């Protein structure tokens, strides 16, 4: 029989719906694949074998009974370990939550279950989503299936690596400054940051509350759109959730797959045209721009002058918010607790727990954020960064008066060697140079494979106005239809 792990999510859903394969067979094939390769990839922190097979049996029973099934029923999905899963370990890649099993599901997970998808397990990530390489996980790094000596991006490297290794056809990530799109780019997969507020943050362990955005990861644009449709939409449990339906992203992806972009006007961000990008990345991007033109798109250059300040603004806003959000990890209410070996003050317990439970990158950002929010420095740092954020948003607004969507490389460089940048935080932060602006603005962005450089994947990023997620899907699907898939070497 054909290897079921080689099919797209849309194809697998069709097989299950028609009875040509059972959900149990599909699930077992992916569990077997995880067993065969994940000791080298380390994409998963927890594999929920029994839970997955139980969910698959339920789908098969419902199909046999003639019940209507959702468009992704029976399709496996992996979930970044930053979303709560009832009774299933949720660590956020940190020792401080190493043994925590939440009493509730996040909204994203609840919607996945309701749609009949089969959750395989939880994927590795940089601790509390703070990183660009998945090397800051407390449980060891994830490796890129294209070259196991290289990083899979971050913070959601586990979710993207699991896709590239054919361990799952779908996965969920979260994007605060590029943590879905950047791993997608360097693993040759599709990564989507929806409009902020378009997907629920309820049950997402918070890093930076004004930036965090859960989103879909897949190997094809259509699969990402199908997953987006399942997880998106208003959630009354999230105060930042937008009370509006998800744009018709599936129809947009199908339209784009026709390869016709006539009437679409795209803007190349002038400030990102060559800033810090490797020659091979620029060459692949320029070739992709030519392809988009041949598909009928009009491509023009657009200036977004304040984008150059996005990186420093982000690294004041995000650490400031994380210093507040991570205050809940105090060794008292849940998670790790250090200091029960003797009578200690609450302050001593907190200090000992955080010293033992938080890794170096988390400590760095908490300290930076606490300083930026401290008395006498708030206006000079956090306040100024928020003003820059406003200017960046205005750049987007001005640009979208001229074009339908913006395009740029997703990352300045291809996947680098494990350990190459951990000693220099600034060099690590540069991985998100092109993705951060859309987080500060709140609009959607997608990374789609556009070529290879030195045998490694390069991603093209499409950015659209808020709640115009369908625009980026159309452009990404059109490019995908023209350049085809990029398959990593066999593991």
State the strand order across the main sheet. Answer: 1-3-2-4-6-5-10-11-9-7-8
Fold-level CATH name: Amidase signature (AS) enzymes
| Overall shape | globular
Mean pLDDT: 96
Describe this structure in words.
The longest helix has 22 residues, at 379-400. The mean pLDDT is 96. The protein has one domain: Amidase signature (AS) domain (Amidase signature (AS) enzymes, Alpha-Beta Complex), CATH 3.90.1300. Helix 9 links the parallel strand 7 (265-269) and strand 8. It is globular. Helix content is 39%, strand content 13%. The protein starts with 8 loop residues before the first helix and ends in an 8-residue tail after the last helix. Helix 7 runs antiparallel to helix 8 (249-256). An 11-stranded mixed sheet has the order 1-3-2-4-6-5-10-11-9-7-8, with helices on both faces. With 491 residues, it is an alpha/beta fold.
Q: Key terms for this structure?
A:
single chain, 491 residues, alpha/beta, Amidase signature (AS) enzymes, 13% strand
Please summarize what this structure is:
By secondary structure, the protein is α/β, with parallel strands linked by helices. It has 16 helices and eleven strands.
């Amino acid at each position: 029989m054909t290897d079921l792990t080689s099919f797209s999510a849309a194809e697998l859903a069709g097989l299950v719906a028609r009875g040509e394969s059972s959900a149990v067979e599909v699930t077992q094939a992916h569990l077997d694949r995880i067993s065969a390769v994940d000791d080298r990839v380390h994409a998963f922190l927890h594999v929920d074998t029994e839970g997955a097979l139980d969910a698959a049996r339920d789908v098969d029973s419902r199909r046999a009974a003639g019940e209507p099934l959702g468009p992704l029923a029976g399709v496996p999905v992996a979930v970044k370990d930053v979303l709560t899963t009832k009774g299933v370990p949720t660590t956020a890649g940190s020792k401080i939550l190493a043994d925590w099993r939440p009493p509730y599901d996040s909204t994203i997970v609840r919607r996945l279950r309701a749609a009949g998808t089969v959750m395989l397990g939880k994927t590795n990530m940089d601790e509390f989503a703070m990183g660009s390489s998945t090397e800051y996980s407390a449980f060891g790094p994830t490796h890129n299936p294209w070259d196991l000596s290289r990083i899979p991006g971050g913070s959601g490297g586990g979710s993207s690596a699991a896709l590239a290794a054919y361990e799952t056809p779908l996965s969920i990530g979260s994007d605060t400054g590029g943590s879905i799109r950047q791993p997608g780019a360097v693993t040759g997969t599709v990564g989507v940051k929806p409009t902020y507020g378009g997907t629920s943050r309820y049950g997402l362990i918070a890093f930076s509350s004004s930036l965090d955005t859960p989103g879909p990861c897949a190997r094809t644009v259509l699969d990402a759109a199908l997953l987006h449709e399942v997880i998106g939409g208003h959630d009354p449990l999230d105060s930042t959730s937008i009370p509006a339906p998800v744009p018709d992203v599936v129809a947009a992806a199908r339209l784009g797959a026709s390869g016709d972009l006539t009437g679409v006007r795209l803007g190349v961000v002038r400030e990102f045209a060559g800033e810090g990008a490797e020659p091979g990345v620029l060459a692949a991007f320029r070739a992709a721009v030519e392809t988009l033109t041949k598909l009928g798109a009009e491509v023009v250059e657009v200036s977004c002058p304040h984008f150059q300040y996005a990186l420093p603004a982000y690294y004041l806003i995000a650490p400031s918010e994380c210093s507040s959000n991570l205050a809940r990890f105090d060794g008292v209410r849940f998670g790790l607790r250090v200091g029960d070996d003797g009578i200690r003050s609450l302050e001593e317990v907190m200090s000992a727990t955080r010293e033992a439970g938080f890794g170096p990158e988390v400590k760095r950002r908490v300290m930076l954020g606490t300083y930026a929010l401290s008395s006498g420095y708030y206006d000079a740092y956090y306040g100024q960064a928020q003003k820059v954020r406003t200017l960046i948003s205005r750049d987007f607004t001005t640009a979208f008066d001229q074009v339908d969507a913006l395009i740029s490389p997703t990352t300045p460089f291809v996947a680098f060697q494990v350990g190459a940048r951990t000693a220099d935080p600034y060099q690590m932060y540069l991985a998100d140079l092109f993705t951060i602006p859309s987080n500060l603005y709140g609009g959607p962005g997608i990374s789609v494979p556009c070529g290879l450089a030195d045998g490694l994947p390069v991603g093209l990023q499409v950015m659209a106005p808020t709640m115009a997620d369908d625009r980026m899907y159309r452009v990404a699907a059109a490019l995908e239809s023209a350049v085809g898939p990029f398959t990593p070497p066999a593991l």
